[in-house]
Amino acid sequence: MMKKILTACICFMPFSSIKPFLLNLLGHKVSKNAKIGLSIIVAQKLVLGNSASIGHLNFISISKICLKSNARIRNVNYLKGNFDLLMKSFSIIINFNLITRGSVDWAPPCSKLVLGKNSQITSFSSIDLAASVILGNDVVLAGKGIQVWTHGFVHDYNRNRYLVTGKVILGNNIYIGARTCINPGVRIADDVTVGVNATISKNLNRPGLYVSHALRHLEFNPHQRLESFQRVINNESTYYQK
Question: Does the keyword S-adenosyl-L-methionine apply (predicted)?
């Protein structure tokens, strides 16, 4: 407990340059090039790789934090509960995200949130970690209002209810649109795009585009789709316009 209190005090100090040194004295493993802003961080183990960073006004009270090189947690995120966080190189949690695990006895003893290389949780998403959530490489939870659930209940006719948990596992190269809800136990294959406002309650096993009303698979060729748009080059950036 004392280690956690001291960790929180050091992380909230205004002098970021000495934080790695002081945290390493407590037994953490923080690169001298890592940066920690004004955030409250309570963890038994903190590992920050080269150029990893945690921004300002985050509240993080979890079991273990591991950010590989160039992984980033930006600003104003709330992470709380008995789970581990692993962020691989160049992954990012941007801002105003709620990532929690309830302090209850019925769930598995510990879960984890894993972000693969170049994966993103953008803004205003909510992730439940009663069970683990695994994102592969190049996964984007885009836009506002995405929900990922790993637990639910089955109610019988005698007013009993039964907990059901399930890991959520996303493959590589996946884009999830705003206000999508992913239910417990869902697996999503590589190379999948999910349109906005969809509810995913079953596995998506085939690459391609999925939309709601009702959820269905559409044949999708990304290069053919881009050819229907106007390519715009602005200075060093390139984008496409309808």
Answer: no
Task: Give the three-class secondary structure for 13.
Answer: coil
Q: Cα–Cα distance between 159 and 140 in angstroms, integer? A: 39
Query: Do 23 and 113 belong to one domain?
Result: no
Q: State how far the Cα of 137 lies from the Cα of 25, in Å rounded to an integer.
A: 33
| In the block, residue with structure tokens 């080269």 | 50
Q: What is the pLDDT of residues 101-137, one digit of tens each?
A: 987 655 567 899 999 999 999 999 999 999 999 999 9
- For 138, the token pair is 């190049």
Query: Which residues 6+ apart lie within 8 Å of 165 measured at CB?
Result: 107, 108, 130, 131, 150, 151, 184
One domain for residues 138 and 51: no
Same domain for 108 and 60, yes or no, is no
Q: Which residue has 């001298």 as its token pair?
A: 32
pLDDT of 151 over the 80 cut: yes
Cα–Cα distance for residue pair 54/94, rounded to 1 Å: 10
Task: With CA atoms as reference, report the closest residue to 182 among 192, 172, 170.
Answer: 170
**What pLDDT does residue 208 have?**
95
Helix/strand/coil for 4: helix
